[in-house]
């Protein structure tokens, strides 16, 4: 590990006393979107709109053998995964890793990756995108990709910074 520490970014808040701006979301909040009855549930913890584009944080609850996206990369954002419960198969660009509670995978911009739940048990994880992007529309529309023409599918993926290989 490097002993060189980067400097802090330039200040962006110039008030003298701080403000009451924090947002709390109880753990038992209902998911904002469920892909289908009994499907993957998405909890929008901190959307890019809520963070002014700094990041997007989502809790994803996958049912048994829920699958996941094939290998892809992003040109505009990094992505990180933190497994909360169960086991999730994570692809780091070279190999598939069975990640369990507490395991983390960081994927820099341009990094090949994929994930899926192959197990017979449910799994949950946090997904972080930085900088933030409007992933909500992506999550809510991905199940309709099969209904799109090839050209529409390419446009959808490019609009959502998802490039499949």
TrEMBL record:
Superkingdom per UniProt: Bacteria
InterPro entries cross-referenced by the UniProt entry: Cupin_2, QDO-like, RmlC-like_jellyroll, RmlC_Cupin_sf
All copies of domain Cupin type-2, residue ranges: 59-129
Signal sequence, start to end: none
Pfam families on file: Cupin_2
PANTHER family, per the entry: PUTATIVE (AFU_ORTHOLOGUE AFUA_8G07350)-RELATED
Protein name, UniProt field: Cupin
């Amino acid at each position: 590990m490097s002993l060189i520490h980067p400097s802090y970014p330039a200040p962006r808040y110039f008030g003298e006393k701080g403000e009451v701006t924090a947002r709390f979301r109880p753990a038992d909040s209902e998911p904002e979107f469920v892909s289908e009855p009994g499907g993957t549930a998405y909890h929008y913890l901190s959307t890019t709109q809520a963070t002014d584009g700094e990041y997007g944080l989502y809790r994803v609850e996958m049912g048994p053998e829920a699958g996941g996206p094939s290998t892809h990369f992003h040109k505009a954002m990094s992505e990180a995964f933190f497994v909360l419960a169960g086991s999730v198969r994570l692809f780091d660009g070279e190999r598939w890793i069975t990640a369990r509670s507490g395991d983390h995978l960081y994927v820099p911009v341009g990094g090949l990756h994929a994930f899926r739940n192959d197990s017979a048990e449910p799994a949950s994880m946090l997904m972080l995108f930085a900088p933030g992007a409007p992933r909500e529309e992506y999550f809510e529309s991905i199940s309709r990709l099969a209904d799109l023409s090839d050209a529409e599918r390419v446009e959808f993926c490019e609009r959502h910074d998802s490039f499949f290989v």
